[in-house]
Amino acid sequence: MTGAELDPASRPDERDTSAEGTGETVGEAKWAALRELERRFPGIDKENVRFAVLSEGERGLLGVGYAPARVVAELTEAPPPSEIVPAAAATDEPPGSPAARLRELVELVCAALSLSASVSISEEEGTLTAQISGRDLGLLIGKHGQTIDAVQYLANAILWREAEERREVVVDAAGYRQRRQASLERAADHAARNAVRTGGPVPLEAMTPVERKIVHLYLEPRTDVATSSEGNEPHRHVVVSPARE
């Protein structure tokens, strides 16, 4: 989320250019308030939004005494009526479509992590992709991509929970998927060479299910090696072995 911080002491009044949001975290509350402003003024520049944190919320003990975080978002400069675009034109995704729901989910995750990021949705050859851009996205990616893989798994589960036709959903951040795939393919090539040279199995580092699938598919066309997965999560890993005659 972007924008200048507003001094909480100068709480905005209840004008059309301000909106209050609540959530379990300040990030979620900011996201909710911003979404309400975007509903009223589709296509607004997020740099023109400032926030006032009214309450950081309280989780309470054992679920007792929970209080949500509360944030007010206010437009510093409301667009003229002639520049307000219809809601349908604010994004390319029809309301309620898988693409729109994917955008909403990813934006909610970014808000919960208090990340300043933008999300673009694309669809090609049956694959729905959410590409996240911004600074300091390491928290979203996580160690070895564990966090972003979890978000991708969650997105697939939510979007196609009741759908008859399922499509693959990819969640990427700052081009991480391409860089990580190249790294995994280099490691797979190295392991394959060692397996052929030594005649024995070569284990790779522990990987997420998404990463193990990349290695399996990459080495599948080769006739001189075979792959398998061994171990239990989170230490499950790929083993590259010489192909049996």
Short description:
The chain is of the alpha+beta class. Helix content is 35%, strand content 24%.
Q: How do the strands and helices of this protein lay out in sequence?
A:
Blueprint: E1 18-23, H1 26-40, E2 49-55, E3 69-75, H2 87-90, H3 98-112, E4 117-124, E5 127-134, H4 138-141, H5 146-159, E6 168-173, H6 176-198, E7 202-206, H7 209-219, E8 225-230, E9 237-242
Defining traits:
24% strand, 245 residues, alpha+beta, 3-stranded mixed β-sheet, GMP Synthetase, Chain A, domain 3, disordered N terminus, Ribosomal Protein S8, Chain: A, domain 1, 3 domains, 35% helix
Structure explained in plain terms:
By secondary structure, the chain is of the alpha+beta class. It folds into three domains: 18-83, no CATH class; 91-174, K homology (KH) domain (GMP Synthetase, Chain A, domain 3, 2-Layer Sandwich); 178-242, Ribosomal Protein S8, Chain: A, domain 1, CATH 3.30.1370. It has helices at residues 26-40, 87-90, 98-112, 138-141, 146-159, 176-198, 209-219, and strands at 18-23, 49-55, 69-75, 117-124, 127-134, 168-173, 202-206, 225-230, 237-242. The strands form three sheets. The protein has a three-stranded antiparallel β-sheet. A hairpin with a 2-residue loop joins strand 4 (117-124) and strand 5 (127-134). The chain is elongated.
Overall mean pLDDT: 81
* Number of beta strands: 9
What coarse outline follows from CA principal-axis ratios? elongated
Low-confidence stretches: 1-15, 82-90
Share of helix, binned: 25-40%
The proportion of strand residues reads 15-25%
CATH architecture of the largest domain: 2-Layer Sandwich
- Number of DSSP helical runs: 7
The structure class reads alpha+beta
Task: Tell me the distance between the termini.
Answer: 57 Å
The largest pleated sheet is described as: 3 strands, antiparallel
What name goes with the CATH superfamily of the largest domain? K homology (KH) domain
Write the CATH fold name of the largest domain.
Answer: GMP Synthetase, Chain A, domain 3
